[in-house]
Write a structure and sequence with these properties.
It is built from nine helices and twelve strands. It has helices at 2-20, 24-31, 39-42, 187-197, 237-256, 266-288, 298-364, 370-405, 414-446, and strands spanning 53-68, 73-85, 101-105, 114-116, 119-121, 130-134, 138-146, 148-150, 162-171, 179-183, 204-218, 221-234. It is an alpha+beta fold. The protein has two domains: 20-235, Acetylcholine Binding Protein, Chain: A (Distorted Sandwich); 236-447. Bound molecules: 2-acetamido-2-deoxy-beta-D-glucopyranose (2 copies). Residues 176, 213-215, 222, 224 line the site of one 2-acetamido-2-deoxy-beta-D-glucopyranose. One 2-acetamido-2-deoxy-beta-D-glucopyranose is lined by residues 32, 36-37.
C-alpha cells in the first residue's frame, strides 16, 4: 500500500507544481504587449504628459578604429547603454513566478530618438535586437557601434599631439521638458571602465573620457545634450623614426659636407642630392597632414626651415666654388705672365749660353770657317732648344695640375682668402642657427 500512496503523492504534487509554471508569454499577455498593439510604441510612455522621461546614458570606448587627420575623422567603437522608465509597464513578480524582467524585440516599445551630432556616416551594422524590461518598467537598451564622426583636430604639435574629440548626444525632437539626459557614470568611472574594456588602441593612447551636460536654446525651447569628450594621445615613435630622424640625419650629412674640399664639383653634387632626399620626405608629410589648420604645424616649420638652411648652404657652396674658380684663373694668368717673363729671360740666358758655347767652340777651332762654325752651332742649339722647350712645357703642365689639384698649396690669392672666410663664417652661422632652431622647436613641441 505504501508505494501506491507514494505514487499518488508524487502525482498530486506534480500536478500542483505544473499549475504554477509561467512563461514570459504570461507577462506579455498580462501587459497586452503584442505586435499588433501599437500603444507601447506610439508616444513617449508617460501617464501624465507633464512628466519628463529620464534617460540614463552610459558610453564606453571599446576601441579607436581610426583617426584620420587629413579628413578630420575620428572613428571610435563605442558601447552605449540607455535606460529609461516606461510608465505603462509594470507587473508584480509574485504573480508570475518571480519573473522580474523580460526581453522584447526593440521595435515593440518606444525608444528615445537620440542622435550623435558629429556622426557623418550612418552605421549599418546589425544591432542588438532586444530590449530588457523589468517589472518597474525600467527599459534597458544596449547598442554597440562604430561612430564615424568629425573631429576638429589641431595638428600644430604633430606628431607629439593630443587630440580631444567630442561625441554629442541629444534628442532630435524632445526638448528638456519632455526628456532629460543623465550620464549614469561620471567622468572618472567612465574613464576607468573604458580603460578596462579597451581592446585596441593602435597608434593612439586613450587618456580619458569626460562627460558633461549642456543646455542650448533653439526655437525658444531648451534642449539638453550630453557631451562625451575622448582625449587621446598619439604615440609618436613611428613618425619620429620615419620622418624626424631621417631629416636630422640629412641635416648632419649636410653639416658634414663642409669638410669636403671646395674646389671640385663633388661637394655641390652631394649637397644637391641631400636636398633632393629631403624633398622626397616632404612629399610624405603632405600625405599625412590636413591642408587646413589654424596654426602652422610645427613639423612643417621644421621641414621648411631645415630645407631653407640646406638651400642656403648649397648657395654658399656655389659662391665659394665660384670664388675659387676666379682665384685659380687669376693665379693661372699670373703664372703665365711670370712664365712668359721667365721664358724671355731664359731665352736671353740660353742665347747667351749658346753664344758662349759657340764662342768657346770657335776659340778651340780657330781654323774653322765662320760659315761652318755657324752651321754646327745652329744644329746643336736647335736640338737642345727643342728639348729645353719640352722641359719647360712639362714643368708648366705640372704647375697647372698642382694648381688645379691643390690650390691651398703655397697659399692663395685674394679670392681664395675670401672663400675660406665665407666658408668659415657660414659654418659657424649654420651650426648656431641649427642648434638654436632645433632647441626652440623641441621646447615648443614638448610644451
Ligand atoms: C489588448 O490589445 C488589443 C489590440 O489593441 C485590444 O483590442 C484589447 O482590448 C487590449 N486588451 C486589454 C485588456 O487592454
Ligand atoms: C539645463 O536645464 C535644466 C532644467 O532647467 C537644469 O536643471 C540643468 O542644470 C541645466 N544644465 C546646465 C548644464 O545648465
Amino acid at each position: 500500500m505504501v508505494p501506491v500512496v507514494f505514487f499518488i503523492f508524487i502525482f498530486l504534487t506534480g500536478g500542483m507544481s505544473s499549475k504554477n509554471v509561467c512563461s514570459y508569454h504570461d507577462v506579455l499577455d498580462y501587459l497586452n504587449l503584442t505586435t499588433d498593439n501599437n500603444v507601447f510604441k506610439l508616444t513617449r510612455p508617460v501617464l501624465d504628459h507633464t512628466h519628463h522621461t529620464r534617460i540614463q546614458l552610459d558610453i564606453l570606448l571599446y576601441a579607436i578604429l581610426a583617426v584620420i587627420e587629413k579628413t578630420q575623422t575620428f572613428i571610435p567603437f563605442i558601447w552605449a547603454t540607455l535606460q529609461w522608465n516606461n510608465e505603462l509597464i509594470s507587473w508584480d513578480p509574485a504573480q508570475f513566478c518571480g519573473i522580474t524582467r523580460i526581453t522584447v524585440p526593440k521595435d515593440m516599445l518606444w525608444r528615445p530618438d537620440l542622435l550623435i551630432y558629429e556622426m557623418v556616416q550612418k552605421d549599418n551594422s546589425d544591432r542588438n535586437p532586444y530590449l530588457y524590461v523589468d517589472h518597474h518598467g525600467m527599459v534597458t537598451y544596449e547598442e554597440d557601434m562604430n561612430v564615424v564622426s568629425t573631429c576638429e583636430m589641431d595638428v600644430h604639435k604633430f606628431p607629439f599631439d593630443t587630440q580631444s574629440c567630442n561625441i554629442t548626444i541629444g534628442s532630435a525632437v524632445h526638448c528638456i521638458e519632455e526628456m532629460r539626459l543623465f550620464p549614469s557614470s561620471n567622468s572618472s568611472r567612465a574613464t576607468q571602465f573604458s580603460r578596462e574594456v579597451m581592446k585596441s588602441q593602435g597608434e593612439w593612447e586613450f587618456l580619458h573620457l569626460s562627460v558633461s551636460s549642456y543646455n542650448f536654446t533653439f526655437d525658444n525651447r531648451l534642449w539638453e545634450q550630453l557631451v562625451y569628450t575622448f582625449t587621446i594621445k598619439r604615440r609618436p615613435l613611428l613618425h619620429v623614426i620615419n620622418f624626424l630622424l631621417p631629416i636630422l640625419f640629412f641635416l648632419s650629412l649636410d653639416l658634414a659636407s663642409f669638410f669636403i674640399s671646395d674646389h671640385r664639383g663633388e661637394k655641390l653634387g652631394f649637397k644637391v642630392t641631400v636636398l633632393l632626399a629631403i624633398s622626397v620626405l616632404l612629399l610624405i608629410l603632405n600625405e599625412i597632414l590636413p591642408s587646413m589648420s589654424n596654426k602652422t604645424p610645427l613639423i612643417a616649420t621644421y621641414c621648411i626651415v631645415i630645407f631653407a638652411l640646406m638651400l642656403l648652404s648649397l648657395l654658399e657652396t656655389i659662391l665659394v666654388v665660384y670664388l675659387m674658380e676666379i682665384d685659380s684663373e687669376q693665379r693661372l694668368k699670373n703664372d703665365q705672365e711670370d712664365k712668359q717673363e721667365k721664358v724671355k729671360s731664359d731665352d736671353e740666358k740660353r742665347s747667351r749660353r749658346f753664344c758662349s758655347c759657340i764662342c768657346k767652340a770657335s776659340e778651340k777651332e780657330t781654323e774653322m770657317l765662320p760659315v761652318a762654325e755657324e752651321v754646327s752651332g745652329c744644329v746643336q742649339s736647335r736640338e737642345s732648344r727643342v728639348l729645353l722647350l719640352i722641359l719647360d712645357e712639362l714643368q708648366e703642365l705640372k704647375k697647372t695640375m698642382s694648381l688645379h689639384l691643390s690650390p691651398r698649396e703655397g697659399g692663395g690669392g685674394r679670392f681664395f682668402l675670401w672663400a675660406t672666410r665665407i666658408n668659415r663664417a657660414f659654418f659657424v652661422f649654420y651650426i648656431t642657427t641649427v642648434l638654436l632652431f632645433l632647441s626652440l622647436l623641441f621646447y615648443e613641441w614638448k610644451r
